[in-house]
């Protein structure tokens, strides 16, 4: 049996808000419909859950990269390597969270087509909050639902 995981409101509930914060020139607070301002992508994904087995869903939404790039991450655009120290922390309402590296989604590096989904199987996520979609992931763990905060952090330093 899976645990009830979200404290997200139901379809009749209030609109969810997504906070973009951290090392950004233009931090933002977005409602799910605001994410329609970027080009929309579709992804049909299959992933395995250790508890519930194989899951299959169809998602639509903007690329995470497009949304975060618009928020102005404070790397030096003239020095491509400067981006390599940036992390992206994605958190759901229930506290489930995962880290991505900036380079993972950057078109000059890993180019992973990660979505910030606004619909799942045709159903809008306006009240539940957006969902992270990683078509390349075999496991479901990073498909975080009910996202309320994305923090971009350029403060990572490796200590030799
Ligand atoms: N907010 C939130 N998102 C989450 C989780 C969670 O506990 N909280 N679990 C993840 C795990 S382990 C899996 S396998 C998938 C399950 O997706 P499903 O509900 O479509 O089966 O959601 C992921 N997203
Ligand atoms: Mo899972």
TrEMBL record:
Residues 17-126 form the Oxidoreductase molybdopterin-binding domain. It comes from the Bacteria. Coiled coil: none annotated. SUPFAM superfamilies: Oxidoreductase molybdopterin-binding domain. This is Molybdopterin-dependent oxidoreductase. It comes from Streptomyces luteolus. The lineage of its organism: Bacteria, Bacillati, Actinomycetota, Actinomycetes, Kitasatosporales.
